[in-house]
Predict the 3D structure of the following.
Amino acid sequence: MGWDAKSPPPKQGMWKQWSYDLDVKGWALRCGPMFYADVRRVGAYGNYHAMLNSDPMGDDADPKMLMRVVDEEIIRRVGEMSAAYKILHARVKGR
C-alpha cells in the first residue's frame, strides 16, 4: 500500500485508513523499516484479514480487534529481540 501524493504518510506507529472504492478498504501501519501491517476487507461483506509483514495474523469481523492483535504482536517481537539488541549494540559501540 503506497501513500498518495495528496496526503502525507502517517506518523510511525499510527494506523492510517485507506480505500480503493466502496468495496475495498482497510488500514495500514508502518513501524520503521521493520514492520508493515495491513488490515483489509475486500467486498462489502465478510471478515477483515490482517497481515504483519508477510505473516497472516487472522481474520475477524471487527477490524479494531485485528489492529490490537497486530499491535500486541509487534510489542511481543520487539521484546523478544531486545536482549539480542543490547548485546549487539554494546559490541558495535565497543569497536
Residues 16-93 form one domain. The chain has a mean pLDDT of 90.
